[in-house]
């Protein structure tokens, strides 16, 4: 059985993440999803809590016939040299790593096979948060379950409030 690791912040979970997970599961039997910066919340870059991000995934993934995944919170660890070792203590053993982040790739490639995920032009959590702030259509680039969940928790209002404080 092969197990992959996919690390992201998922701020919020979007269609690019869903596509990455579907593609990874074509190559591995199980996917460990590491929710990075799990200790960060209500900040400009991390407006959603780890609980909220995991709930988004748990709403979206089963509705897309994805069940062979487990989610683990991964708090920030401010020691680049020991970051991979730290993650190995938090998640089950894995065979390869999926990422779209150059820094994550650099950290893991010394020890693991790293597969770059395909970044879909126009879809990123940063773009989504920016569209929320500007009252633009962000719902078209997230799964319906994510949009519904963000509405339920007043997530757009939170993103706008956090960003107005940081100016």
Task: Explain the overall architecture.
This protein is of the alpha/beta class and 167 residues long. The protein has a single domain, classed as Rossmann fold, CATH 3.40.50.620. Helices cover 41% and strands 16% of the residues. The chain has seven helices and five strands. It has a five-stranded parallel β-sheet, sandwiched between helices. Helix 2 packs antiparallel against helix 6. The longest helix has 14 residues, at 50-63. The chain starts with a strand and ends with a helix. The mean pLDDT is 95.
Question: Topology of this structure?
Answer:
Elements: E1 3-8, H1 15-24, E2 30-36, H2 50-63, E3 69-74, H3 83-90, E4 96-99, H4 102-108, E5 113-116, H5 125-133, H6 144-152, H7 155-165
Parallel strand pairs: 1-2, 1-4, 2-3, 4-5
Low-confidence stretches: none
Number of helices: 7
Strand content: 15-25%
- Strand tally is 5
CATH topology title:
Rossmann fold
What is the radius of gyration computed over CA atoms, rounded to a whole number of angstroms? 16 Å
Helix share, percent: 40-55%
CATH architecture: 3-Layer(aba) Sandwich
Anisotropy-based shape: globular
- What is the H/E order? EHEHEHEHEHHH
* CATH homolog superfamily: HUPs
- What number of structural domains do the residues give? 1
Summed up, what is this model?
By secondary structure, the protein is of the alpha/beta class. It has helices spanning 15-24, 50-63, 83-90, 102-108, 125-133, 144-152, 155-165; strands at 3-8, 30-36, 69-74, 96-99, 113-116.
Key features of this structure:
single chain, globular, 167 residues, 41% helix, Rossmann fold, alpha/beta
């Amino acid at each position: 059985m092969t197990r992959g690791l996919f690390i992201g912040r998922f701020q919020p979970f979007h269609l690019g993440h869903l596509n990455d997970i579907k593609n990874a599961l074509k190559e591995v039997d199980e996917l460990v999803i590491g929710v990075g910066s799990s200790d960060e919340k209500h900040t400009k870059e991390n407006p959603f809590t780890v609980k909220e991000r995991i709930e988004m995934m748990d709403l979206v993934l089963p509705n897309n016939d994805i069940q062979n995944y487990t989610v683990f919170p991964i708090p920030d660890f401010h020691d680049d040299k020991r970051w991979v070792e730290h993650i190995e203590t938090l998640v089950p053993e894995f065979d390869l790593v999926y990422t779209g982040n150059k820094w994550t790739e650099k950290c893991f490639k010394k020890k693991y096979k790293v597969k770059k995920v395909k970044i879909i032009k126009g879809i990123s959590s940063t773009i989504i948060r920016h569209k929320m702030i500007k009252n633009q259509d962000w719902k078209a680039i997230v799964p319906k379950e994510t949009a519904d969940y963000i509405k339920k928790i007043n997530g757009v209002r939170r993103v706008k409030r956090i960003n107005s404080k940081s100016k």
